[in-house]
Amino acid sequence: MTTSLSLQDQRKINAARHALSFVDAGQVVGIGSGSTVARFIELLGAAPAKPPAVVVASAQSEAIALKAGLKIVPLNDVRRIDCYFDGADEIDPSLAMIKGGGAALTREKIIASASKRFICMVDGSKWVSTLGAFPLPVEVVPFAEAYVCDRIAALGGAAKRRGELITDNGNIIIDVVGLNFSDCDGLEATLNNIAGVVCNGLFAARRADVCIIAGDQIETRTAA
Hints:
Helix content is about 30%, strand content about 25%. The protein is built from 7 helices and 13 strands. α1 crosses α2. The protein is globular. About 45% of the residues are buried.
């Protein structure tokens, strides 16, 4: 019995397949997490020439990469990554993003920051004119949850803990709505400067270099 894919799933596959054209022979590849990334990992593992090593951002991606036959190495062993591939929960024309729906935002941001090039892969529903409809994930040390929520409230945001979820780093995630995204770089820095915040899911200081958007056709965008 065959299972038909939804239109959105097919577009995710299309975006991931197009992203393979950005993988050059001999490159160390960074890999994020999420459903589109899972498709990319599977396709990368089946490619004629696999990268010599990959650095992954989550335990989930690691499991998929191992199954795909990819060689995983720690970031500490390579220091610098040639190209990083990841999705986004929202991405705008400046290629700033909200990420962290899968709770791997901290390791994703670290790998993205260590990469020479960042390729973002999304279906068309993730391309937005302005960020902020998707709640902004913030990874927080559990001890500081109430304090961080109070500080975010002072910025105009409303924060809610994401159930009993614990990140791969042993922390919690709070999801925030109501913030002003007119200055993404400033907002990212302000949130990261709150004591107890490990990282937030606004990727502005390290935007994508290229965004692959899968709609009825594939579009490739660079920053506006």
